[in-house]
Specification:
Layout lengths: L1 H9 L11 H13 L4 H16 L19 H6 L4 H22 L3 H17 L13 H19 L5 H10 L6 H9 L5 H6 L4 H21 L4 H19 L15 H22 L6 H10 L13 H16 L7 H7 L10 H13 L2 H14 L4 H14 L3 H19 L2 H15 L9 H9 L10 H14 L5 H9 L9 H17 L24 H19 L4 H9 L1 H12 L11 H11 L5 H17 L17 H15 L7 H19 L12 E4 L8 H22 L10 H8 L5 H14 L7 H16 L6 E4 L10 H8 L5 H21 L5 H7 L2 H14 L18 H4 L5 H10 L1 H6 L9 H9 L10 H16 L13 H16 L22 H15 L9 H4 L2 H12 L6 H20 L20 H14 L8 H16 L4 H15 L2 H8 L1 H15 L6 H16 L12 H13 L3 H7 L8 H20 L7 H24 L17 H5 L5 H5 L1 H7 L6 H5 L4 H18 L21 H15 L11 H8 L4 H20 L6
Parallel strand pairs: 1-2
């Protein structure tokens, strides 16, 4: 039957329809093939290739023909136990079969066996379903692998195994491999780990694979106790291999000096594992959490036992030192000011135990001296994480006994260097290290007070060498004042540095400043306790002297009891600390009490003070009278010596409690209006009695209530009353609801709430609500939430009679109505707050729908805030996927009170019931309650992903549904986007920028997570923007002439927002615009670079669309995001990436690049100068990308930039400079940037070569040097001292003067640079686009800064000189009047050359004197346009204007009396 089926299948439906046998068909095919010579060889090769590509190596032996005993299955061999006696026989059979089959296939047996073993290993690893999340084998897998390894060993011993082929096959299926399998191959010498890792061509992929599996291994080691020995042996072997390869003797971590990539892989994996651990520590670890265990496991490898005798000591030291460096420099985001403020939180006891444990392990092999040296080196050469550095110092002094003296010596060296050269960095390091060590207590290090007194309290101190050192010390201490703890200022005041009398003012100025700061912090130096330890880390606050004084009294009594003498501290305080002594110490000592019959220690001490005249007579008399009164009034059972406490009558509060209880009893019938109203009136009266309210307390006189969300505080009595009222309202509401639904309970709730709306009471009620909802929300019970929600509804009912509420940040700055106030208290940022928000919104909406079901919609609208209903929609969509589907016709139509009666704990059921209710869905049809796309984005941005109730996957799915399925297709009238993806992106960018600049985006906690320019929020929303932007780019291309006219949507958003901002040069306006532009730049940098450079159009020439970006650069970025003639590196490199991307899509990439950069020369020249500034970092990437993607040499215009850079380097070299390449202004820019980066001496020597350069280069270079001069004033380095700023300004000024000298020497006109106009085709059009507008406005400052370099005689011969000089002077006056010259003033410094240079008044005086001296010497031609200039200049300087007019008139009169020249 099977034969017939085969024949039937083989028969065809030919023209004759005759059925032919299978043999006939084969014979015919053979005959046809024989007609083609060489066909057989070709078919054989194809067959071999096909078999090699698709053969299942694990079932290889099933296909081998031969005797029955040779039909072996490798899978069966591995899966079943085989006696040891048969092992060799079976291996030889497999080897024989492999040889036979390799011979049949025509492939090397070593290759075939390697592929077979690799395939079998993959099958073993994939046998477990969870293999992707594991690194270890189970026992069954381990047994199978052992059998397979025995076979591989046999094959390897008989030269039937190729390691290289085996490694290549393994890497093809690397994601299916388990780490333990590779480790066994290494241990059993099948293939070493080093050989295996070096065989992978992709270094980054190797590192990523190893990192992932090592992390899984660490997690599994601690997760289960089975096979722990194997796992730890694996981890030890891997770490040993990494250290031995990555930290070999004489190896350099910065480059691979050995063949192969193993050292780089080893270092990269170790660094990534360390970063993983540090990130986990930074995020906060819970004890016994999986992450905690994994980090602990990895840190355990830094044990000397891990490397026992396998790694050389030098390699181990290198590894430990490198690790310590990585820890100390990990995320250096904290500034020195942060370290000064927070270092007390980084002591040994407060540092995470895992971090201190790794410190201790790293300290084992490195000597203390080497540790100190390494610490110093890291601090001098790296940006450091101050928290890690200082916690390391704490661990050092705690764990190493000799560290105290070493740290002391280190600090001494730092201080010596600091005072020798006024080195601020050394000073900062010394003080931070000493304070950190002192935090660990006197048992391990000197107290800060003792150290400070020893270092600066004598004539031998570091500061005693000169006035300069004294100024440096007190300047440093003064700079610390705003940031340091009060304790340190108290030390500085009570143990001040020793200062010579003639410099005493320096000390008094500092003490005044420190005392002012202490007063601001409510800390009084006079109120410091007698026995307080100034070395402790605890600070004293204003309220503590009252608690410190009794402690001082007890210590003084103890000393007096032992010595019989008045303690010295008390005597000193009575003289030098009199305010504290009289105001705190004596009142604590003289507390009235029943005096004992036999005088005790306190009585004897008081009498001793009285005899020494240390107690004022009046105070002593009052004390004795109070003691006598206490004797008369003492209770019968009072013991002598007992203190008398004043009584406190709580009768009004008790009466209020009784009245509230009576109201609770009356709630059995909530409809009895008269009874309830009478009882509520009684409660109102009792409240007034408790709080002392006036009779007329019904209406509000104030127009607003001021609250603080971040720190809402109440007096104790007020809080007791408010808590009683709120508790009573919640209990009464629940009791009434058990008898009747809300709509049948009468108006008792409204009346009760009105009692809490009295003028003095309402602020306290709102403050307490703020505390409960904003701080304690997650801990509120269901009844509390229901009651507070109903309270919010009734307060909203009375909104017209209540004032607005003004709250501090992060709430809006405007006044809020009561419903809006509750809406602002409900946040959705975390899982807990989201749940509270859902509960509150559900309760409030349900209650209001039920309570006012029979009333008009206007009443309902007044009770509820639209924001509350929108938040409810947002939470339902977010938390319940079933709510995202359209509602069916079977909606619940029950009574609105049903949710109020459901079990209070089942909030999900209640919320979904409310959502499906027809009444609520009808409410949502109102426009004011629409949850728009913008509303959704605003709420979603507040979500904090790390504490979100949704997982990352769930949150992404929700975003995809909300954007693409819900809001994108939704009509614009309903809050959607009308299907327009560009509109969706535009709104998202707009909301994102608003959010990042609002107070809501700033976390006011200490663990603030700053992203995207200081804003916290749902970072995934930004990811959605990136995805949508890519989708938008990949969408259909509009016809030419349509999309290009509109430009990219992003620039439209930026342009609209920037136009809405005010323009001006005042600081506030400038900062607002700068903040907006920084946000614009960050968004641009996060999106693909093609946004900056659009794809070229199809026609020629192929020029990309950069107009929008060029406009943004010229109009905004040039002024706010540039370094004086160049943009920042990030935006520069982003543009060139976009350019290369556009070139890759162009028909002629070189032409596209050349045309774009040629356009930049005229339309956006600052792009080219930016490229020149960052060329050393930009060129490698440009060259690499062009070579990889586009082949061939760099385009001509990029080569021009390279040539300009080479010209600048050659100019500053000792060799003869070559001529400047075109365009000349580009070469001048490159030369200017090169000059800025060399020392002053080198500049002066090499500038002599300018004498041989062309005139145009000198003019452009002079302009750039002017910009450099202004930049040295406006944008000094952040860490520069005033002296360093002055030196830089002096260098820039000297460069300008040198270039000016060459211009004057060669009689080249340079005044045109101070008369630039946009309409100038040559200079003005380019140069005005190269510098920020502020620099152009400050050119008058630069002009007159060069007065000492002017060749006055040469200038007077210039026709335009007087016009330019007067114009610059008038503009300089305007700058001075507007206060703009303060930005370029130089603080006082000791540099003689700059005395008066940075003083605006001095510069203005010199300019005026120069003009008055020059005007009489100017020729007649110089006055041709002076009248027009004076007409626009006004009456800035009457004397100069008079001199000009007088000179002009005198020259005119001279012309009248001259005889005409007739012949």
């Amino acid at each position: 039957m099977s034969d017939s089926r085969v024949q039937g299948a083989a028969s065809g439906r030919g023209s004759g329809g005759r059925r032919r046998a299978w043999s006939e068909l084969l014979a015919g095919r053979v005959r046809r093939q024989e007609r083609s010579p060489g066909r057989g060889q070709e078919l054989q090769e194809s067959a071999v290739l096909l078999l090699r590509s698709h053969l299942d190596w694990s079932h290889l032996l099933l296909e081998v023909e031969g005797p029955p005993h040779k039909k072996l299955c490798l899978g069966s061999w591995i899966d079943h136990d085989v006696p040891e006696a048969c092992t060799h026989l079976s291996s030889s059979l497999i080897g024989s079969a492999l040889r036979d089959h390799a011979s049949l296939l025509g492939v090397p047996v070593a290759v075939l066996s390697s592929q077979m073993v690799a395939s079998s290993i993959v099958r073993i690893c994939e046998a477990e379903a969870e293999h992707a999340h594991r690194a270890l084998l189970d026992s069954v897998q381990r047994k199978k692998l052992s059998s397979l390894i025995e076979i591989a060993q046999y094959l390897l011993a008989h030269s039937m195994f190729s390691r290289l082929s085996f490694c290549q096959e393994l890497w093809k299926v690397q994601n299916s491999l388990l780490l333990e399998a590779l480790w066994h191959l290494h241990v059993q010498n099948i293939v070493s780990l080093q050989e295996l890792l070096e065989s992978h061509a992709d270094l980054q992929a190797t590192v990523a694979w190893l990192f992932r599996n090592l992390r899984l291994l660490c997690e599994q080691i601690e997760a289960s106790c089975q096979h722990t020995d194997i796992a730890r042996a694996m981890l030890s072997d891997f770490v040993q291999m990494f250290v031995s390869n990555g930290f070999q003797k004489n190896s350099d971590l910065r480059r691979n000096v050995q063949p192969g990539q193993m050292p780089q892989v080893a270092v990269a994996v170790l660094e990534r594992m360390l970063i993983l651990a540090l990130e986990a520590l930074g995020a906060g670890l819970q004890e016994e959490s999986p992450t905690h265990k994994a980090v602990s496991c990895w840190f355990s490898v830094f044990s000397i036992h891990t490397f026992c005798r396998t790694i050389s000591t030098d390699s181990l030291k290198k590894f430990f030192s490198h690790t310590l460096t990585q820890i100390l420099t990990y995320k250096p985001v904290l500034r020195v000011s942060d370290a000064v403020q927070m270092q007390r939180e980084w002591s040994f006891a407060r540092t995470h135990p895992l971090l201190t444990s790794v410190y201790r392990r790293l300290f084992v092999i490195v000597s203390p001296e080497e540790l100190i040296s390494h610490l110093q080196e890291v601090l001098e050469t790296h940006e450091v994480n101050w928290q890690h550095v200082l916690s390391c110092v704490s661990t050092l002094v705690i764990c190493l006994p000799e560290a105290q003296q070493l740290v002391n010596d280190w600090v001494a060296r730092l201080l010596a260097r600091a005072f020798e050269s006024c080195d601020l960095d050394s000073m900062v390091t010394a003080f931070l290290v000493v304070r950190q060590a002192a935090l660990e207590g006197p048992s391990v290090f000197l107290s800060y007070a003792d150290w400070f007194q020893a270092s600066f309290g004598s004539a031998k101190g570091y500061h005693g060498c000169s006035k300069k050192a004294l100024v440096f010390l007190f300047k440093f201490l003064s700079d610390l004042v705003p940031f340091e703890a009060p304790r340190y200022m108290q030390v500085h005041i009570l143990h001040p540095p020793l200062v010579p009398s003639k410099y005493r003012s320096l000390l008094t100025d500092y003490i005044t400043l420190a005392k002012t700061r202490l007063a601001d912090l409510k800390v009084s130096i006079e109120n410091l306790g007698l026995y307080e330890d100034l070395s402790s880390a605890r600070d004293v606050t204003e309220s503590q002297p009252h608690s410190q004084a009794p402690q001082d009294v007890e210590k003084a009594l103890l000393v007096f009891e032992h010595t019989g003498k008045i303690p010295v501290a008390v005597l000193e305080a009575s003289i030098f600390r009199r305010p504290y002594y009289l105001s705190h110490f004596l009142p604590a000592l003289l507390t009235p009490r029943v005096l004992p019959r036999v005088p005790d220690t306190r009585v004897a001490f008081i009498e001793s003070l009285k005899r020494a005249d240390k107690i004022p007579p009046s105070l002593y008399s009052t004390y004795r009278q109070a003691c006598s009164a206490a004797e008369r009034e003492k209770p019968e059972d009072a013991a002598p010596g007992m203190k008398v406490e004043p009584g406190h009558v709580e009768e009004p509060l008790e009466l209020l409690t009784i009245a509230l209880g009576e109201l609770r009893a009356a709630m059995t019938d909530p409809v009895q209006y008269d009874v309830l109203s009478a009882q509520i009136a009684v409660i109102s009266e009792r409240v007034g009695s408790v709080l002392g309210l006036s009779e007329d307390r019904g209406s509000f006189e104030a127009s607003k209530i001021q609250l603080s969300v971040l720190a809402p505080e109440l007096e104790q009595q007020e809080q007791k009353v408010v808590d009683l009222l709120l508790t009573s309202f919640c209990q009464n509401l629940m009791a009434a609801s058990s008898f009747a639904p809300p709509d049948r309970q009468g108006p008792w709730a409204s009346r009760f709430v009105m009692t809490m709306c009295e003028r003095t009471l309402l602020p306290a009620v709102l403050t307490r609500l703020c505390q409960l909802l904003h701080r304690q929300g997650p801990s509120l019970s269901a009844s509390h939430v229901l009651g507070l929600a109903a309270l919010a509804v009734h307060l909203g009912e009375s909104r017209s009679a209540l004032p607005e509420v003004h709250m501090g940040p992060p709430a809006p700055a405007r006044g809020l109505s009561i419903p809006e106030f509750f809406n602002s208290l409900l946040t959705c940022g975390t899982a807990e707050s989201s749940l509270l928000c859902l509960k509150f919104c559900t309760a409030a909406i349900s209650y209001s729908l039920c309570k006012f079901s029979s009333q008009s919609r206007d009443v309902l609208y007044s009770c509820l805030s639209p924001g509350l209903i929108k938040k409810f929609q947002f939470m339902v969509f977010r938390l319940f996927s079933e709510a995202r589907d359209p509602l069916s016709q079977e909606d619940t139509a029950g009574h609105p009170s049903k949710p109020w009666c459901l079990p209070s704990a089942d909030w999900q059921q209640v919320a979904l019931y409310l959502w499906k209710q027809r009444t609520f869905q009808e409410l949502l049809k109102e426009e004011q309650f629409h949850l728009t796309y913008r509303n959704w984005l605003q709420l979603e941005l507040e979500i904090q992903p790390e504490v979100d109730s949704l997982s990352d996957t769930e949150r992404r799915d929700f975003h995809q549904w909300a954007i693409h399925e819900h809001f994108l297709p939704k009509p614009a009238a309903a809050g959607g986007c009308d299907g327009d993806l560009e509109t969706a992106c535009t709104v998202l960018v707009d909301v994102l920028m608003d959010f990042c600049q609002s107070s809501r985006s700033y976390d006011h906690s200490e663990s603030s997570d700053l992203v995207l320019g200081g804003c916290t929020g749902n970072r995934d929303i930004f990811s959605r923007l990136q995805e949508m932007a890519v989708d938008l780019e990949q969408g259909p291309v509009a016809p030419y002439g349509h999309s290009s006219s509109r430009g990219h949507f992003l620039f439209g958003v930026f342009r609209r927002r920037l136009r809405a901002l005010a323009s001006g040069w005042d600081v506030a306006t400038h900062l607002r615009r700068q903040r907006e532009l920084l946000m614009c730049k960050r968004i641009l940098l996060s999106l693909p670079p093609s946004v900056l450079v659009g794809s070229p159009q199809g026609e020629q020439p192929a020029t990309p669309d950069c107009d929008e970006f060029f406009h943004l650069v010229n109009s905004e970025l040039r002024n706010f995001c540039s370094h004086g003639g160049a943009l920042t590196h990030d935006i520069t490199v982003h543009f060139f990436r976009g350019l290369l991307n556009a070139c890759s899509r162009s028909r002629d990439p070189s032409l596209t690049a050349n045309l774009t950069l040629t356009t930049c020369q005229t339309e956006c020249p600052i792009i080219l100068t930016s490229a020149l500034l960052w060329w050393p970092r930009l060129e490698p990437e440009l060259h690499c990308r062009w070579k990889k993607c586009l082949q061939g040499p760099l385009p001509r215009e990029l080569q021009r930039l390279r040539e300009a850079q080479q010209f600048a380097r050659s100019f500053l070299s000792p060799n003869t400079a070559s001529p400047a390449p075109d365009p000349v202004w580009v070469s001048a820019a490159a030369l200017h940037f090169a000059i800025q980066q060399v020392g002053k001496e080198s500049v002066e020597r090499e500038l002599e070569k300018l004498d041989c350069q062309q005139e145009e280069l000198l003019v452009f270079l002079f302009f750039f040097s002017l910009i450099g001069l202004l930049s040295s004033h406006l944008t000094p380095h952040v860490c520069q001292t005033s002296s360093a700023k002055a030196v830089n300004s002096l260098k820039a000024l000297d460069i300008c003067g040198k270039i000016l000298g060459f211009l004057e020497k060669r009689k080249i006109s340079w005044l045109v640079l101070f008369q630039l106009r946009e309409t100038d085709a040559s200079l003005g059009h380019i140069l005005l686009r190269l510098a920020p507008d502020q620099y152009i406005r400050l050119l008058p400052f630069a002009f007159y800064s060069l007065l000492s370099y002017f060749d006055k005689d040469a200038l007077l011969r210039e026709d335009a000189f007087l016009h330019v000089a007067v114009d610059m002077y008038l503009k300089l006056i305007c700058l001075f009047v507007d206060g703009d010259t303060s930005a370029v003033s130089i603080p006082a410094s000791g540099i003689q050359e700059l005395q008066g240079q940075g003083d605006p008044v001095g510069l203005l005086t010199k300019a005026r004197l120069f003009l008055l001296q020059s005007i009489p010497q100017c020729p007649k031609k110089s006055f041709s346009n002076i009248a027009e200039l004076l007409a626009t200049g006004g009456d800035c300087d009457p004397e100069v204007i008079t001199a000009l007019l007088s000179r002009q008139q005198a020259m005119s009169d001279t012309d009248l009396y001259q005889e005409p020249h007739l012949f």
